[in-house]
Each structure stands twice: as structure tokens, then as C-alpha cells.
Amino acid sequence: MATLSACSSPPWPDPNPTTSPNSDPNPNFLPDQSQTLDFESLMPPQPKSPPQYRSPAASPPGLSPETPPSVLHVAFNQDQACFSAATDNGFRIYNCNPFSEQFRREFDGGGIGHVEMLFRCNIIALVGGGPHPKYSPNKVMIWDDHEGCCIGDLSPRAAVRSVRLRRDRIIVVIEQKILVYNFQDLSLLHQIETYPNPKGLCAVSQLSDSLVLACPGLQKGQIRVEHYAQKKTKFISAHDSRIACFALTLDGQFIATASTKGTLIRIFDTVQGTLLQEVRRGANVAEIYSLAFSSTARWLAVSSDKGTVHVFSLKVNSSIPEQEKPQNSSNSDAAITPSNSSRSFTKFKGVLPKYFNSEWSVAQFRLQEGSHYTVAFGHEKNTVIILGMDGSFYRCQFDPVNGGEMTQLEYHNFLKPEPETAL
Q1: C-alpha to C-alpha distance for 288 and 212, rounded to whole angstroms
Q2: Whole-angstrom distance, CA of residue 109 vs CA of residue 99
Q3: Adjacency order of strands within the sheet including 373-377
Q4: Integer angstrom CA distances of residue 132 from 41, 135, 137, 161, 239
Q5: Which stretches does UniProt call biased (Pro residues) (predicted)?
Q6: Better-scored residue on pLDDT, 20 or 189
Q7: Which residues in 270-359 belong to E strands, given as ranges?
Q8: Backbone φ, ψ for residue 154 (5° rounding)
Q9: 12 falls in which pLDDT band (50, 70, 90)?
Q10: What is the rounded distance in angstroms from the CA atom of residue 261 to the CA atom of residue 285?
């Protein structure tokens, strides 16, 4: 069930406006015209900031900062330029480079369990969470930060496990079903039955002319890939064990998968379902927390409960059009030249490698074992960004030639105010 609502009855934003936006950018957030649909141009201006806003430097001089909230979920936006943190009292949005808090919204006695951004625009999907949820856990609230309120909601008949956004679609994940909605009018377009999916695993491509959606299939270890433009469904038997994590490239042509064993990561062609490469994280069982491709699929990053982030080299040439890549994308990725064919992987010859002949990571970064970290590639050359559920933010650099231990470039605790520099 979908509901449209508004604080002052603003028009519902069109995710695909036909005219160029000409309004002033939101002063509370960085504009990114290369990746953003400016929903604000479709909204009436507000005379004041919403009452839920609290400045990052709100503590008066001489008073100790208040106790940081508990983080319930962290996630990068679609181009990894920003990230969101859902907390037990609201949510916060940060810029990755340079690191800075862009804004926060705090609710009295209300927690947010999941935040999903849409690039850098003011439309955000929220799901209630924590000991005292702000919203029902079986609702997806469409928050317009320009208006400072929710302008619509989706109400599946079960608790929402995760949400994914595109400019034209809202994908809602519940325990055993994927629901695909049209962004413009919130109409339900497609339902997909899945294997039990308590972690809310789902991935969606982000190119404007191609919608590819990946989710668990109906069997253990199986991935289902929907190619909507081709009206084609592909089932991939990726692992013998249950699927623990997967990630799509921006264009949806390749998928990286990991099972609950967490020792091997496999890369498949999503159209044919062909296994293209297999890399080894380690020998012992591990819980894989996140997988991330670089913008042109030259590198793959992996985080797990073992406390080490790995970067693997992939044998792939990108076919992503230059205009579709995030602005300021990695120079090391840009050096990979697209081939004439739609994709070009160096495939295995003969049988898959044994343990002693496995493909190991090129670079590593050591963290606290057992903690939950999410990883993505930065927009600077050969950089990786790591987010911790404890509020940690790391920006690291790896050597693409010699590999080895990454160099830490930056560290912040995004839950605590940054100390002001003395004049």
C-alpha cells in the first residue's frame, strides 16, 4: 500500500523532470548536478529550517558534548561521495571528501533503522528502528529534507529489511519478497519471491538506461538477476551455502558474491550467469559485511568480521559510458580502456584454482576484529573509505602495483564533533 502526504501539500516530485532545474541549491547539502535530480526545483521554498534540525556544533561553550547516539545502520549513497548514518534518535548525512557532516535530523524519542539516499538530492527513504522507532518498521517513509517532513509512505505487510533507490524506482525488501515501485506515483510494478532474506540483501544498477536488479533466488546459494530492459531473468547458482553478501557494478553487468563461509568471493556475468573469476579472502570461515566494486570494476573491496579490509584486482575492462561515471572518479580506474565488446573478462582456463593457487588480495587494511565495517572506493586515486558501526571513518590509500598494507590518510569519529582549530 502506498500513501502520498505532505506537510503543506507540495506537489509530488517527478524523478525524471523534463526541464532543467533552476532553483537555488539546498544550503543544507552539497549540490551535485552531475548525479542529482534537483527535486527542490519542484518544491515551494520554506521560510525556515525544519524544527528537527540540530547543528553539528550545537553544544554551548563550556558544556561537554552530549552522549553520542547508537548507530543502527550506515550506508554510502549511489556514487560513494556521501554516506548516511541511521541512529536511535534520527539520522545524519556526511560528505566523504573532504569529510564533513552535512546535516542531521534528530527526533525526540524516535529511532531510524535504515536511511537510503538518492545520490545528493533532498529525497531520502527512512525506516523506523531501534528500541523506540520513529516510524513503524513495516513502513518506508519518503522524507523530503527541503520540506522537513515525510511526503509519502509505502506499507508492505511485513517488516522492511532494506530499501534501494534509483531515480525511477523504489525497491523495498521484506523477509521473503522484493517489491518494486514506480518512484513517480509509488505504484507497485513488480513482486519477486525470494529465499528467506533477513539481512535484506538486494542490489540495483544505477545507469539511467538500464535497470538490473539482483536478489536472492528461491534456493540456497542462488542469485536471481532481473534485466528489465531485456525482460530477462537469470538464476545463478553462486554457492553451496547461503548467500551472505553481493554487489553489482554500476551498469549491472557483473556481480560479486560471497556465501556464509566467507572464504571465496566469486564474480559472475549477470547476463549469461558465467563464473568469470574467483578470489580468496582467507582460509577460515568469516562473515562478509560488504562488497564494493570500483567505478569501472577494476578493483573489488571486501570487509568481514576478521578485521581486515581486502582489495582484489579484477580482470575486467569497463563498458560504463564516461558520462555515467561519478564525477571525480578514481584516476587509476580511468586508465582502464573500454573494449569494443560490451564486456571483457579474462576467464579461467581449466579447473578452478585450489587453495594453494588461489587469487589473493593485492592490498589490506587492519581494523578491530569482530566490529562491523562497510567499505567503498573513494573518488581520489587508489583510495578506500571504511565506515564502522562504532562511528569510525577511515580513508586509506593502496599501492596498485606493489600492494601490501594500505596507508591511512584520514580518521574521524563521525558521531563526535570535530574540535575547532584555534586561531
Answers
A1: 23
A2: 28
A3: 373-377, 383-388, 392-397, 407-413
A4: 34, 9, 10, 17, 38
A5: 58-68
A6: 189
A7: 275-280, 288-293, 299-304, 308-313, 316-317, 344-345
A8: -120, 135
A9: very low
A10: 5
Residue bearing cell 568469470: 276
SS3 123: strand
Enumerate domains of the chain plus CATH numbers.
1-55+68-193 (2.40.128.630), 206-326+342-418 (2.130.10.10)
pLDDT reported for residue 84: 96
Nine cell digits for residue 88: 536511535
Q: Residue 400 CB: number of other CB atoms within 10 A?
A: 17
Contact 236/225 with Cβ under 8 angstroms? yes
The model's pTM: 0.78
And the C-alpha cell for 401?
A: 602495483
Closest CA to 272 of 320, 247, 231, 235: 235
| Grid-cell match 537555488, residue found | 24
C-alpha cell at 118: 538518492
pLDDT of residue 68: 82
| CA distance linking residue 77 with residue 149, whole number of Å | 20
**Of the candidates 287, 274, 314, the residue with the CA atom closest to the CA atom of residue 371:** 287
Q: Specify burial of residue 47 (Cβ count, 10 A radius: 0-12, 13-18, 19+).
A: exposed
In the sheet that holds 169-174, the strands lie side by side as: 162-165, 169-174, 177-182, 188-193
Sign of torsion, CA 28 89 44 166? Answer: positive
pLDDT at 335 over 80: no
